[in-house]
Design a protein that fits this description.
Order of helices and strands: HHHHHHHHHEHHHHHHHHE
Shape: globular
Strand order of the largest sheet: 1-2
Strand content: under 5%
Radius of gyration: 19 Å
Number of strands: 2
Structural class: mainly alpha
Distance between the termini: 33 Å
Helix content: over 70%
Largest sheet: 2 strands, antiparallel
Length: 326
């Protein structure tokens, strides 16, 4: 408990909260101290768990829109997630983050907590979840670019070649689905890519100096005043129609996608790096297509199996190539 509270003062303690080699692990004996390979696997598994949580976001949002308007849904999911995060942080007596970390937390809040959910929810009013999932498949490449500029990482040529190949597959798939045109929903989605990539990059960087769940928690708490005002304005103007799907969708996007998903995602990025973790998200659109078919009854395009194989190959290459940090 005390180690987590003091994570902002000591990066060593913060890293010890993740399954990586540490003095705390060494004190339990050499048998329990993980080596570099298990640590990398642990980080990959955490990031993958985050991807699975995120892959259900669009279908859950579509369910949520059955009961709530887009602005009401975004503000309520933020307030619910912030309440959960605030309870955990209050119980753990987490200290206020240091001043040098607050700007980064604001970027996470604006990009991941507010910008991406709002823009994608607006897009889903006119786009199907399967179409939106494929467009957002460009997020790994966008995040890798932001990471390279912001953190000074230098991915290898093989890494970039595989990432660009994966992006090309996603773009081709999108064009085939949309008939070669771009809609207003697509513009919302492309804007969501930019703000989310910035938030992921800052969140991954901060997760190396404080526990990932605290990064998520502080980002959520920063948005509470805005969410309260937004809910007060939106709810009277957007009628609420209570349905089982609507409530389930709201709970999932708030608890699983926003809080739990970001927690494991940032922990995974802290271990294996922002660029490598971002490439795991190449599988997210294809997972979302499956959920859209199973939960919403949407048809999967004939090209989906081909795209799935190509994207998974790209993921394997990027994970082997890794990233060289300057």
């Amino acid at each position: 408990m005390r180690d987590e509270n003091s994570a902002t003062e000591s990066p060593t303690i913060a890293v010890a909260t993740a399954p990586v080699p540490s003095e705390a692990g060494a004190s339990r004996g050499s048998r329990d101290a993980p080596g570099p390979l298990p640590a990398g696997r642990g980080g990959t598994l955490l990031a993958l768990l985050g991807v699975v949580s995120f892959s259900l976001t669009f279908p859950s949002t579509a369910w949520g829109l059955e009961s709530f308007g887009p602005w009401s849904l975004v503000t309520l999911r933020t307030l619910l997630a912030a309440t959960i995060a605030g309870g955990f942080m209050l119980a753990a007596r987490v200290r206020v983050p240091e001043r040098q970390h607050r700007a980064g937390l604001a970027v996470v809040a604006c990009g991941v907590v507010v910008g991406f959910p709002l823009l994608t929810t607006l897009a889903l009013q006119t786009s199907t979840t399967s179409h939106a999932a494929v467009v957002v498949g460009l997020l790994p490449l966008t995040t890798a670019v932001f990471s390279s500029v912001r953190t000074g990482s230098r991915p290898s040529r093989a890494f970039w070649a595989a990432a660009l190949a994966g992006a090309a597959v996603v773009i081709t798939f999108t064009v085939l689905q949309s008939g070669g045109g771009l809609s207003t929903g697509d513009l919302y989605l492309f804007a969501a890519l930019l703000v989310c990539a910035a938030g992921y990059t800052e969140g991954g960087r901060l997760a190396k100096v404080m526990p990932g769940w605290q990064v998520t928690g502080w980002a959520l708490l920063l948005t509470v005043p805005l969410a309260v005002v937004g809910a007060a304005v939106a709810l009277p103007h957007e009628p609420v129609r209570w349905t089982a799907h609507g409530v389930t969708g709201l709970v999932w996007v708030a608890v699983a996608s926003t809080f739990f998903g970001l927690y494991v995602w940032y922990r995974g990025m802290a271990e294996i790096g922002v660029a490598r973790a971002s490439q795991l998200q190449l599988a997210q659109p294809l997972l979302t297509l499956i959920w859209s078919f199973l939960l919403l009854g949407e048809e999967i395009a004939p090209a989906a199996p081909v795209a799935a194989v190509a994207v998974l190959v790209c993921i394997a290459v990027t994970q082997r190539a890794g990233a060289r940090r300057s």
